[in-house]
Amino acid sequence: MMTAEEKYWHWLDRAKYDIESAEIMYSSGRWFYVVFMCQQALEKLVKGLYNYYVDDNVPRVHKIPFIWKRLAEKISAEISENHLSLLEELSSFYVADRYPEFISKVSATVDSVRAGDLLSNSKELFVWLTDLKK
Predict the structure, then answer these.
(1) Which domains does the chain carry?
(2) Rg, Å, the chain Cα set
(3) What is the pLDDT of residues 40-82, one digit of tens each?
């Protein structure tokens, strides 16, 4: 059985892979997938912190602000309004349904500028979140 520390590192490794995938998607011009992978990375990182600081019953939801609020109560951390807004925006890009027509519709809302901004802001938030685990 893994310890809370080991579980955190597992979540973090997966989150790093996803944020790196977002960078690769950006360099290849796949704007929607940039944003989707940012969402995945931050969701996994927040879940890893939740697992470490709260318990093993990580909420099985994809609404990052919901998970964050439950975590923040335990660790007394305050997130900036900009970062909370980013988590809310990214949560709207979680795609449970990967049918092409759905992705096409959502993809139309993301261009290179928006994808670049969301990637940059996600990387900044990623660093802030990893600093919460010392």
Answers:
(1) 4-131 (1.20.120.330)
(2) 15
(3) 999 999 999 999 999 999 999 999 999 999 999 999 999 999 9
Which among 116, 94, 107, 96 has a CA at the least distance from the CA of 41?
94
Relative orientation angle of helices 81-91 and 112-131, to the nearest 10 degrees: 120
Long-range pairs, 63-67, Cβ under 8 A, ≥24: 63/91, 64/39, 64/88, 64/90, 64/91, 65/91, 67/43
Nearest-angstrom CA–CA distance, 42 and 87: 8
Retrieve residue 40's tokens.
């995945």
User: How many whole angstroms separate alpha carbon 121 and alpha carbon 118?
Assistant: 5
